[in-house]
Amino acid sequence: MLTTETGGTRVAPAGSPQADAECIALLHLARAHFGSAAALIVVPAAGGPHPLACVGAWPMPIPIPTDPFTHAAGHAASGAAPAVLPAAGEVWPPLPTVASTEASGCYAACALHGRHGGHLGTLLLLDTAPRTLDAARHAFLAQLATAAGPALERVLASPAGDGAGAPIAHDLVALALKGSGTGIWDRDIAKGEIHYSAEWKAMLGYEPHELGNRIEDAVERVHPDDRAYVQAEMRMHFEGGSDRYEVEHRIRCKDGSYKWICSRGKVVSRDIAGRALRMVGATTDITALREAATRHQQTIDLITNLTDEVDGLVFQYRETADGQRFFSYASRGIGQIYELEARDVATSADAVDARIDPRDLAAYRRSLRESAANLTPWRLEYRVWLPRQGLRWRQGEARPRRLPEGGTLWHGFITDATERKRIEAELHELATIDHLTELANRRDFLAQSEAEFARLRRVGNGVAAVLMLDLDHFKALNDRWGHALGDRALRHFAQLLRQEARSSDIVGRIGGEEFAVVLPGLGIDAAIAFGMRLQRRVSASPLVVDDLRVALTVSIGIDRMMPTDPGVDQVLTRCDKALYLAKARGRNRVELYGE
Question: PAC domain spans which residues (predicted)?
């Protein structure tokens, strides 16, 4: 049984060449991209093709005939592009599987040859069900083989097991990206300059010294029909309206022709006012992919995502037409984001659902349904409960694609938004909460009151009462015992007021010793009863500090919101006049405006 989960398996016998990290990295990339059960590299041997390395799981031995390799070798020797041979039961017979009741086998193979020609081996994709490759995947597999051929040549040229001369694994990814036509750019927004890598310039047919750095020239190269869209997306990202910049558009080459490119970037530096200073990104030539298949967006995103430094989970999520849900690919970031492993979600997404906070689970499922139904991007912020990390915030983004059988495939990423949400909550609290009493501050109280007033005007016949409250003799209390005790008196009164109020009432500190309450749905009589209950509660609950007992009383002015009022300020003014009357008539009273 050939089996691997993370590291890859070298299966050559003693004395034969050993697959190095580069070959294993290639197989991981191929298996993750195509969603295969296994990916193998086989090399010719005296007894027939022999497996050199495997990523995935497959029973041994693998009975592969030699004819396809002879065919592939002929293509390689001729100098043509690597042959990609669709098998699917036509070239090779079905292979045995772990479950003997199923039929399966090789569904694609790609010949690997060296820099000077000559067949070296073959890359195989195996699955437990018949599979086919569209034109876009066919092209991508051939591209991987082009990068892998020289790597295999180095392995075969080295003594068995010594790994000499093999580059580190990430070199393979660099080769693949270079072969796909990707260039890097760095924009200095303040100077109005943009600097391009040599690969970026070569993509448009320029030599390194033939392209200037002026941003005006960069805008001019964009196709006239795409220019407004590109500039709008760029402005939106500069202003913080998008997490990253991503566009697909046409661009003029040196010879006057146009290419399709996918350009992604992100502002990496802002000034203290939040203005963008520097932006970096990568551009990929997608002309051939657009011509090969209009549905090649999945492959484009996968390749370009390899250049993104995403601190989180990169994933492919699939929902079949009959409702099955699973992650066809999950990066190692799933351990940080969900405290799970890729195998936990490879056949079912239930383990992820179990991690989502019950308060957000319905919204999570609804957002995916809407994204699938309308093929609109999926974006959501939601909470998760994790065994080790506890309650955390997650931010997910993905793009959907309809599959031929009617299912939907998303590709995207999920990041940790906990720290950002914490900062947002602190800023919201600073902007809305009175730090001494922990009631709504004046600004937030007025905002909530205006919202209630707008609701009253919409319904037409609603009611709401408003109370202004002021602690009696508060200045004398401060003068006698000091501001520290005065602050404790304010906190004590705020606690009593909060206990008397309903959860739907709007309660705030307006300033100093003055408070206000809006009672939605209650008229004048109910407001008077509320005020009298509060006075009794305050009288029965003096402030106690050590051996000191300080009696408190409160004066209250009342009126009701009227839909004819221009705004909340008018009813607060009337309540304030009623409060003044309560003070003038002896304090510790409830007075109604106009009486």
Answer: 245-298
Record the pTM.
0.39
Q: 10 Å Cβ neighbour count for 326?
A: 17
Which token pair is 39? Answer: 């990916």
Give the burial string for 420-457 (b: 16+ CB within 10 Å, else e): ebeeeeeeeeeeebbeebebbbeebbbbbbeebbeebe
Looking from the CA of 530 toward its CB, the CA atoms found within 13 Å total 30
**Separation between Cα atoms, residue 223 and residue 213, nearest integer Å:** 18
Amino acid identity at 373: A
Residue labelled with tokens 């495997």: 54
Distance (Å, rounded) from C-alpha 89 to C-alpha 103? 10
- Count of CA atoms in the C-beta half-sphere (13 A) of 181: 17
Q: Token match 């007033």: residue?
A: 453
Give the tens place of pLDDT for each residue, 395-427.
Answer: 999 999 999 999 999 999 899 999 988 888 888
Helix axes 170-180, 21-34, angle to 10 degrees: 60
pLDDT on residue 349: 96
Ramachandran category for residue 240: left, alpha or beta (phi over 0 → left; psi -120 to 50 → alpha): left
Three-state DSSP class for residue 314: strand
Span 489-513, average pLDDT: 94
Give the Cα separation of 121 and 45 in Å (integer).
10
Tell me if 559 sits within 8 A of 466, measured CB to CB: yes
Distance CA 420, CA 415 (A): 11
In whole angstroms, what is the distance from residue 183 CA to residue 235 CA? 22
**What domains are defined for the chain?**
2-175 (3.30.450), 181-305 (3.30.450.20), 312-422 (3.30.450.20), 433-592 (3.30.70.270)
Three-state DSSP class for residue 385? strand
The 10s digit of each residue's pLDDT in 146-204 is 877 877 877 777 654 444 434 444 454 445 445 556 788 899 998 999 999 888 999 99
Say if residue 376's pLDDT is above 50: yes
